[in-house]
Amino acid sequence: MRARYKKVVGLILVSGLAVTLFHTWSHSTSSEVDIQPRLGTPLKELLQRIHRDNISDSQVDGYHIKEDVACRLGQNACVCVADKETFHLPMSDWFFPRVWAHNLDLTFLQSHPDPEGVKSHRAQEYNSFKKRSYSPADVLIVAEANSPLQYPTQGVEVRPLKTIIIPGLGLKGATASKYTVYLTASLGTFDVAATVDKVSIEGEGQKHIVLSSPLLSALNRQLQFVTYTNTVFHPKTADTVQFATEGYQSFFIIKVGHKPVPTLYNSGYQQEYNISAIVTIATKTFLRYDKLKDLIDSIRQYYPTVTIVIADDNEHPQPVTGPHIEHYIMPFGKGWFAGRNLAVSQVTTKYVLWVDDDFIFSTNTKLEKMVDILERTTLDLVGGAVREVTGYTATYRHTISVEDGGKEGDCLHIRNGYHHIIKGFPSCVVADAVINFFMGRTEKVQQVGFNPRLAHRGHLEFFIDALGSLHIGSCSNIIVNHASKIHLPWSKTESQKKYEKFRYSLSPDDNKIHTEVFYFKNRFKCMTSH
């Protein structure tokens, strides 16, 4: 009887798994947000407009839209769509996660006393941001074919209020009695570093200069000496220069800006990585001094001289002492991301390793591997893996993308997974977000920073702010252990109960702050995720 019962249970489990797998395979095409053309989507009008703008001849040949390619074009009309749930099996979401969608605009605005006012304020702030971040170098300029003008299309730079010779200027054309070219700028002036015989020049030291000569060779020689001087100070911008001759005109960009000052770390030449000289371990603690002690003891077992920076916002701080330990006390309950900011701000080494205060180092926690991949690649940050007491090892890899959504805001899409494997590191991949155990270039992590308004919870918010700024990887063969979180209710200490209350009992204000951060600060109208 017992054997028959086991067979029945086994058949039910296998059948359920098979149904789930079939559902997943058949549903794979809609596991992401549907961006196929919908009613009201101006895809056809967009392609027709592009077609008209690029063909001046009134006799236009017919064309056919390739739907599988055209549907991927950005249309500035993103929407959030969740996967439909046809049926649900126990634990199916763990193995085959559905995409959920959250309309941030509805959630945030419906509870706001002045929704129109906050929308106007957000639009004003966004316009100000665009003005600050705009650069003419971002404008698309196409050099038309068969133009006699020769000019640099990119790569010309000048320091603020400094002078350069413009490289690559020239005129290639048929025979004429006189050759003339014009240069016009808005943020600087033109001159010549030398004059050439039989070339006349008008507008020296002005924003508009004219050069002419009966000899093409003389004019081209003169163009080799044309200078540009920036006259409007800005630490980072660009000037759009017009270069023209009779019947032709072109544009090119001169970038204006200070040369970035490098941040170099003098850790001494070593044939092998000196972890103590180039890595600082940072963490934040709250109501878990016992866990913190276990973390420090495990670190000292493998890295006895690495500096550990601790941010502490306990109400009644306890001393945490020892060699190579820096303990910083914060106001009570200041929060998770504020503690990250404080800890990372005190790091002076090339790399910072972030760990939670309930992690435990083991023989698999090889910081040398993290340093090696950062040293040998262009990555700014690399995450590892966290092994739970159950034996399950998590890497928590995500890809993040932002889809244009028009004046109401953009759409944030977060998916489980990664982009590609890193050549030479078969256990490592490129992703946009990784687990809470990562090593990064200190100055890059400091540049992104952590939003101190996120007090009780926050992780992906840092990687969303880092999108476009940090190149991120994840390696599954660098593992830190996670202390057990399994406690019987009657065995919990008062500190554990208090910690869980602070950590997991989120108030409506906490949820409101998260929605506001996404809706207002990041200008998202909705988000989708697994």
**What is the level 1 CATH name of the largest domain?**
Alpha Beta
CATH level 4 superfamily of the largest domain:
Spore Coat Polysaccharide Biosynthesis Protein SpsA, Chain A
Q: In the CATH scheme, what's the topology name of the largest domain?
A: Spore Coat Polysaccharide Biosynthesis Protein SpsA, Chain A
Overall 3D form: elongated
- Percent in helix: 25-40%
Structural key phrases:
15 helices, 29% helix, Spore Coat Polysaccharide Biosynthesis Protein SpsA, Chain A, 26 strands, 11-stranded mixed beta sheet, single chain, elongated, 530 residues, 6-stranded mixed beta sheet, alpha+beta, 25% strand, Immunoglobulin-like
Summed up:
Helices cover 29% and strands 25% of the residues.
What are the SSEs and their pairings?
Blueprint: H1 2-26, H2 43-54, H3 67-70, H4 92-95, E1 100-102, H5 104-110, H6 115-133, E2 149-150, E3 156-158, E4 163-165, E5 170-171, E6 179-184, E7 188-192, E8 200-202, E9 208-213, H7 216-223, E10 226-230, E11 236-245, E12 248-257, H8 275-278, E13 279-285, H9 289-302, E14 307-312, E15 325-329, H10 336-345, E16 351-354, E17 359-360, H11 367-376, E18 381-387, E19 393-394, E20 398-403, E21 410-416, E22 420-422, E23 425-431, E24 438-441, H12 442-448, H13 460-466, E25 472-482, H14 494-504, H15 508-521, E26 524-529
Parallel strand pairs: 3-12, 13-14, 13-16, 14-15, 18-25, 21-26
Antiparallel strand pairs: 1-26, 2-5, 4-10, 6-9, 6-11, 7-10, 8-9, 11-12, 16-24, 17-25, 18-19, 18-24, 20-21, 22-23, 23-25
Helix pairs in contact: 5-15
